[in-house]
Amino acid sequence: MSTGSATGPLTFTPVEEIPNIRENLRSTFKTGKTRPLAWRRQQLRQLALMMQENRDALADSLWRDLHKPKEEVFIAEIGAVMARALESAEKLEEWAKPESLVGQVEDWQKDWNPRTHHQPKGTVLVIAPWNYPIILTLQPFMGAVAAGCCAVIKPSELAPTYAALLADLLPKYLDPSCFQVVNAEIEGTTKLLELQWDHIVYTGNGKIGRVVASAAAKHLTPVTLELGGKSPVIIDPASDLRLAAKRTLYGKYNNAGQICVAPDYVLIPTNKQDEFVGHLKEIYEEFFPDEGRSLSSESFGHIVNETHYKRVKALLDATNGDVVIGGRSQPPKGIELTVINNVQAGDSLMEEEIFGPLLPIVPVDDLEAAIQFVNDRDHPLILYLFTQNDKVKDYVLDNTTSGGLCINDTFQQLSVNMPFGGVGESGYGRQVLRYGFESCSNARAYVDVPKEAEQMLGVRYLPYNEQSRAV
Ligand code: NAD
């Protein structure tokens, strides 16, 4: 049974109930209820309706959990889930259509009707983090719904108001015999991970990603790991520096920098550094014209909790760089949008993913040095490059590795329907729309060998003879 209420505190699902929840979903899956495309379409539309009818309550829950401005919630979470759920419903037929492989087989095999069928994998577990609680629970979930799977959603306990609200809303809009919310901390999540699932989508940090992947390995369960890391911004001298500054700062203030694809740090040639920092200062003034600046702005999010506040503050306190914008903090959750110039490779700010509103500027000799800097570290989830030079675009594409590459902007890779995911330490697997559908589907290969093929196949049978040896 789902737990929680729209306004009450978060109630955790009793741990002993968790195996029954999984069992019930598996039983439903076996009945075939989730397979008809019309049923899946209807559930996806219900998901969109749930967003539409509860947009204020949903936005309010994120304001309480993260001080996230309504505008950011509407654009990046509620609006995106609605649009993608409706698009999934619309495109489902096309995605689910058997794919003919006739073009890939020998001429004499063409009448075998070779093709792949997308078959739902079964029951999917979605484990989500707190930073974009709505989209990161519901985007992987809609892949499962579209694929015809049953699913459990395990939201983050660090966004408790939303987690309670989701548990309350989901059974009112979608079929509870197929989809359940389990609210849990470590004990309950560990119980979930002991059980066998047919696919797991985990979004969060790499340390827990390893826990999830190890637990899944015991059952040979396939996993999508959406992790994080330090996503760099490379500024090429042949770029519009002011626009690069504006778009980079935009990428850092959203959700107070607590985004897996936030620009983590900037690599810029030393001779362009002062000009770039000058633009950042002007743009900061434009973004935050009030006296109180980002610390007290209604348009700027908070750090999610005191533990993360202390973590981010410690990184800032230990830096040897020069704070050129912001720098103030206010316990328990306020840290100003802060730019730190002249940061060196060994600095505290370069040790781990910042996941907060701090932007280090790291001077490098040239583009080659920037590429080397990136390649000496873990593969990032996304790499941002600002340049007007097409040769530089190709060169960076060919000489670096990351989950995605976005040129001349930040975040806009998310607004285009493209496969999303990491590589190496930033994760594996792909999702969003069709790619989420495919992750939760088994692409089952199919051939139907006609009687007439016997003529060509006869040679395989015993006893082997001169003719079979000549093949
Ligand atoms: P979090 O603390 O909310 O943890 C994520 C999930 O793991 C939660 O549901 C939590 O309950 C669960 N969890 C925690 N400890 C566990 C344990 N011991 N065993 C099993 N489950 C456990 O979120 P977080 O990890 O702080 O999220 C931030 C990280 O996620 C950052 O690294 C960020 O880059 C990454 N992230 C990646 C994406 C992406 O799409 N690639 C999106 C958002 C965030």
TrEMBL record:
<dbReference type="InterPro" id="IPR015590">
    <property type="entry name" value="Aldehyde_DH_dom"/>
</dbReference>
<dbReference type="GO" id="GO:0006081">
    <property type="term" value="P:aldehyde metabolic process"/>
</dbReference>
<dbReference type="InterPro" id="IPR016160">
    <property type="entry name" value="Ald_DH_CS_CYS"/>
</dbReference>
<dbReference type="InterPro" id="IPR012394">
    <property type="entry name" value="Aldehyde_DH_NAD(P)"/>
</dbReference>
<comment type="similarity">
    <text>Belongs to the aldehyde dehydrogenase family.</text>
</comment>
<feature type="active site">
    <location>
        <position position="260"/>
    </location>
</feature>
<dbReference type="GO" id="GO:0005737">
    <property type="term" value="C:cytoplasm"/>
</dbReference>
<dbReference type="InterPro" id="IPR016161">
    <property type="entry name" value="Ald_DH/histidinol_DH"/>
</dbReference>
<dbReference type="GO" id="GO:0004029">
    <property type="term" value="F:aldehyde dehydrogenase (NAD+) activity"/>
</dbReference>
<dbReference type="Pfam" id="PF00171">
    <property type="entry name" value="Aldedh"/>
</dbReference>
<dbReference type="InterPro" id="IPR029510">
    <property type="entry name" value="Ald_DH_CS_GLU"/>
</dbReference>
<keyword id="KW-0520">NAD</keyword>
<feature type="domain" description="Aldehyde dehydrogenase">
    <location>
        <begin position="16"/>
        <end position="444"/>
    </location>
</feature>
<dbReference type="InterPro" id="IPR016162">
    <property type="entry name" value="Ald_DH_N"/>
</dbReference>
<feature type="active site">
    <location>
        <position position="226"/>
    </location>
</feature>
<keyword id="KW-0560">Oxidoreductase</keyword>
<dbReference type="InterPro" id="IPR016163">
    <property type="entry name" value="Ald_DH_C"/>
</dbReference>
<protein>
    <recommendedName>
        <fullName>Aldehyde dehydrogenase</fullName>
    </recommendedName>
</protein>
